[in-house]
Write a structure and sequence with these properties.
Shape: elongated
Number of strands: 0
Radius of gyration: 53 Å
CATH class of one domain: Mainly Alpha
Order of helices and strands: HHHHHHHHHHHHHHHHHHHHHHHH
CATH architecture of one domain: Alpha Horseshoe
Number of helices: 24
Strand content: under 5%
Helix content: over 70%
Distance between the termini: 133 Å
Length: 567
């Protein structure tokens, strides 16, 4: 009676504690900020809910869902659904057909993508993880790859299962014997090992070492095996200490370091026996037999074989049985020929059975690998098309920017050329005006000199009675230089900068004009009077008038019509 009363009191106490914990969680969720609800619920699940029984766990998560609906939090409601699926997955992970029970929970979350990107990615990953443990292996791999791409796009820092994702992909490719791709994913998982338990990190480093061992890179394999063993010893996970020790022993055997291999293999046998892993103990024992045979210690090999016999038959694996009979054949081939023949027959028998099993496994792996590669190819194709479209858009933007830049440079250059042309035109106009003014000044000087000579009626001949006065007049005449051939070239250059088409139009429309007539028209264009033209050309005003009349008569037009055509 006393025992029953104590038991009931203890049970009542535990129920009160559980109810108190649920009440505390509910109160916290009811008053917490919206953006912290999902993170807090995950922490409570990882530290408390996942370790409770299924009734308590689902009751707690149902209460979380009620609070989510009261607070109108879609993310929290989907978090409760997802955690039910995760709880179911954790409890049934080792049961091939029960693990699918968690998939409906994940499908519910996948149908509500808008609630939370993180939960959507998590649900996609765990659905793939669950399917990968069933006959729908390739479909599961597809979900895992999609989860990886989505997590990569959103940033792995917001995805709590990055380690598991990379580790699962690495183990998948290891099962395909695709060691390079396996290493690609397994090495990516290393930075996230702090997010998982130590035994999972040991598993990771052990698989990495196995990849390098299968690739023949024994030094690198040894480094990772040693690291895995150190982690296993630190975490005191005895089963993994045995597994890694056995793998190190096998590595040393392949490197022909037989004596160094024995202690590791012996440790694997001891730990496998202690943890009741019969198949592992049988395999490690057979590896020890191979070592003793390599050392030519047949008696020791015979003892190990004798001890391994019950383990081998208890394991019941065809490959292990084939290995067992092969070692017996090697041991007895030089001792007992008839017995050796029986052993080799048994070896071939079990080897054939193991090969048939392996053919089925290999065929399934090849099928899964082909489907996996097909899906990966589709993903790469989609990524390639996405990159192409992005490059195309960027190229269009760059081309448009280049066109705008080129147009701006062209406009800028045109403006600069126009400013330069206007500046040159202004300078040319100034020079032509200066030149014209000079012509007019010279014409006035010459006219003044002539008037003075006419007024005085002084003959400009040798022996004149007033030599000083004659000398002064001569100086004035010399200053009034007419438009010589050399001056005409300078004048024509300046004139053409302002009136660019004048001379070409004359040549086109009036090809029979003389040089004198062309010069007369040019002087008319700049507005010189008859006397100024006469002075510039060094002829009399009457000659200018006669030349003009003769010119316009020859052409059959007036001066105004001539100049209008020259505009």
């Amino acid at each position: 009676m006393k025992f029953c009363a104590a038991f009931l009191l203890s049970l009542l106490f535990l129920l009160c504690c559980a109810n108190g914990a649920r009440a505390g969680t509910a109160d916290t969720l009811q008053h917490m900020d919206q953006d912290r609800l999902v993170g807090y619920t995950f922490r409570v699940f990882n530290t408390e809910i996942q370790y409770t029984d299924s009734v308590t766990a689902f009751r707690t998560l149902d209460r979380v869902a009620e609070i989510a609906r009261d607070r109108n939090s879609c993310a929290l409601e989907m978090c409760a659904v997802f955690l039910k699926g995760k709880y179911c997955f954790i409890r049934n992970a080792g049961r091939k057909f029960k693990v699918v029970d968690c998939i409906p929970f994940f499908d519910t979350v996948l149908a509500k993508e808008h609630c939370s990107d993180m939960l959507y990615t998590e649900a996609m990953f765990f659905k793939g993880y669950a399917l990968s443990r069933t006959a729908e292996y390739s479909k599961g791999f597809e979900y895992i790859i999609r989860a990886k791409e989505k997590a990569k796009a959103e940033g792995f820092e917001g995805f709590p299962n990055t380690f598991e994702l990379y580790a699962l992909l690495g183990n998948t490719f290891y099962s395909f014997s695709d060691y390079e791709n396996s290493l690609t994913y397994l090495l990516e998982a290393i930075p996230y090992q702090s997010t998982v338990e130590m035994r999972e990190a040991v598993d990771l480093y052990n698989t990495i070492a196995l990849c390098y061992r299968q690739m023949g890179k024994y030094d690198t394999a040894g480094y990772y095996f040693k690291h895995a063993l150190d982690l296993a010893n630190t975490a005191h996970v005895s089963d993994w200490i045995g597994i890694v020790s056995g793998n190190i022993g096998e590595l040393l055997y392949r490197q022909k370091q037989y004596r160094e291999a024995l202690p590791y293999l012996q440790r694997d046998v001891q730990i496998s026996m202690a943890t009741q892993q019969t198949a592992s103990a049988a395999k490690a024992s057979l590896s020890m037999v191979r070592v003793y045979l390599a050392l030519e210690q047949q008696d020791s090999a015979a003892v190990i074989l004798q001890n391994a016999r019950p383990l081998v038959f208890q394991a019941g694996e065809n490959k292990v049985l084939a290995d067992y009979y092969q070692n017996l054949f090697k041991l007895y081939k030089d001792r007992d020929g008839k017995l050796a023949i029986r052993y080799v027959d048994s070896f071939h028998y079990f080897q054939d059975l193991a090969a048939r099993e392996m053919d089925v496994v290999v065929a399934d792996r090849i099928k899964s690998k082909l489907e996996t590669e097909k899906y990966q190819s589709n993903i790469k194709l989609l990524e390639s098309e996405k990159r192409w479209h992005q490059t195309e858009r960027k190229s269009v933007v760059v081309i448009l920017l280049l066109i705008v830049l080129v147009c701006w440079l062209i406009v800028r250059r045109i403006r600069q050329e126009r400013r330069h042309a206007r500046k040159e035109l202004a300078n040319a106009c100034l020079l032509l005006d200066t030149y014209t003014a000079s012509l007019k000044q010279k014409s006035r000087l010459l006219e003044e000199a002539r008037l003075e000579l006419d007024t005085r009626s002084i003959p400009l001949v040798a022996g004149d009675d007033n030599p000083e006065q004659n000398e002064l007049v001569l100086q004035k005449l010399q200053q009034a230089t007419i438009l010589t051939e050399e001056n005409w070239k300078d004048f024509k250059r300046l004139f053409s900068q302002i009136h660019t088409q004048f001379f070409s139009h004359l040549e086109k429309h009036f090809p029979n004009l003389t040089n004198a007539e062309i010069r007369l028209l040019a002087l008319s264009k700049i507005g010189l009077s008859t006397n100024e033209k006469a002075s510039a050309l060094g002829i009399s005003p009457d000659s200018v008038r006669k030349t003009k009349l003769r010119l316009y008569k020859k052409l059959g037009i007036t001066e105004e019509e001539m100049l209008r055509r020259m505009m």
